[in-house]
Amino acid sequence: MSGKIDKQKEFTGWHMLAIMIAFFGVVIAVNLTMAFYASSSWTGLIVKNSYVASQTFNERTAEGREQAALGWTGELMVKGDAITYRLVDASGSTIPLDSVAVVMHRPVTADEDIALTLERRADGTFGIDHGPGDGTWVINITAEAGLDHPYRDVRRIVIRDGALR
Questions:
Q1: What are the residue boundaries of the structural domains of the chain, listed by start?
Q2: Rounded to two decimals, what is the model's pTM?
Q3: Measured by CB atoms within 10 angstroms of the end CB, which terminus of the chain is less buried, N or C?
Q4: Alpha carbon distance 86, 100 (integer Å)
Q5: Interval 150-162: pLDDT, tens
């Protein structure tokens, strides 16, 4: 026999306190990290004042119905560093436009919003030399075609290797 006696370690209240502090410390750290990333990315804000936006809902809906009844189709082309747009009627003829404005934004962030005014080209299209970059974009196109209200075309597009996919 050796003269040593093995003592079994006891689980005390201090041990339980350390486990509880470690557990809730991890939970709080994860929550703070997620809250930081959530607040530093897209705000989720679509309109600044939903009440004001709702006041024009019926007008915008009526304009959309009128626009659909025209039978016009917008043709958007993205190739390399060029964006072009034109409107065509049901027979494929180009609709003469006064101006075309484009607002591009990423679906989940407001960091890369781009507002562009397209220039009239010789072939009747409107375009600009601007490569928006690869990825997913939401494009809001406003074309003045001599109507009571602008022609609106909203699309979600994917650009890969400088071309529309």
A1: 12-41, 50-164
A2: 0.69
A3: N
A4: 9
A5: 999 999 999 888 7
